[in-house]
Amino acid sequence: MGEKLLTAKEAAEILKVRKNTVYDMIKRGDLKASKLGKQLRIRQEDLDFYIQYGSQASTMLNEGKTQTNDIDKDEFEKNILNIPNGPTDMAGRNKTTQKGMANQIIICGQDMILDLLANRLNQCVEENVFRSYKGSYNGLYAMYQGEVNVATAHLWHGKTNSYNIPYISSMLPGTDVIVLHLLKRKQGFYVKKGNPKRIQSFEDLKRADVTIVNREPGSGVRVLVDEKLRQAGISTQEVNGYQKVVNSHLEAAATVNRGEADVAVGSEKHSLSVPGIDFIFIQEESYDMVIRKEDFTKKPYQKMIEIIRSPEYQKEVAGLGSYNVENMGKIIYSDCGCRP
Which superkingdom, per the lineage (predicted)? Predict the structure, then answer.
């Protein structure tokens, strides 16, 4: 009986992540894959190995003399990933994204619902629709730099106990924007099944017997952690593992599952992908979209908003699980008096 081979889409469905996240794992060497013509295939046992060991899988495999992915990086990006290619400027920015902004739309953010949106939008507008996978803080900065057309964020502001608007106002000076609500998600602690360390709050993170695994600076989770620690008067130097960083919810959950950390912070949705993990609720977050005022009335952006507000798209997003799509597409902030 032959071994079971999975497509990137099938692997993404098992991991409950977007398909492009699987491509990123393959490109980094974290997940093994092979090419059959122009198609990628992933062995079930390699996917199971990644679920068990996360980003350490590639290191463990290489130490055991295992072959690496036989996929050329440039060819991979050109033929498989839906990203713009081209020369970069002195700052390392892609010139195509700056020069051809009138002919393309770059949607920035890490949630897979944006992949679904980009795919739908690509089918009904003349402009090329691309995806950028920067986190919330970095996505807003990229928008200010003119590198992306649309940004998304889930940044909690501790002083006002609100999401996104305080950051958008300060990080996009001189830029009139419209902010649309997308959805709400639950954020919480990832702990081992049964919560053996009895972790319930951020106060527990300063305990000597507790070690965390953190997220990268600029991500919404990292901002949440930093703000909660600040509010609790806890120095980051008091938190064991604070400097240990991973780049995704899934990897954070897998790190806890392997016993390399006692706790991480992430979304409920991704905790469901890793057996052996319990989720301890912290708070519900707002995930919102930012569009420039000058773009808002343009046809492709109006089409994008039409898709976001459509029952078909909202049903597709809700079907992914752990998403509250109530008020999706509603204008929650505007510098131009636009109506919801």
Answer: Bacteria
Q: Token pair for residue 193?
A: 């099944």
Q: Are strands 162-163 and 156-157 parallel, antiparallel or unpaired?
A: antiparallel
Distance, in Å, from the CA atom of 131 to the CA atom of 97, rounded to the nearest integer, reads: 11
- Within-domain flag for 126: yes
Phi-psi region of 76 (alpha: psi -120 to 50; beta: other; left: phi over 0): alpha
pLDDT tens digits, 57-95: 555 555 543 444 545 444 444 444 444 433 233 333 444
Rounded CA-CA distance 94/86 in Å is 6
- Whether the CB-CB separation of 235 and 202 falls below 8 Å is answered with no
Pair (111, 177) in one structural domain: yes
Instruction: Work out the burial of residue 89: count CB atoms within 10 Å of its CB; fewer than 13 is exposed, 13-18 middle, 19 or more buried.
Output: exposed
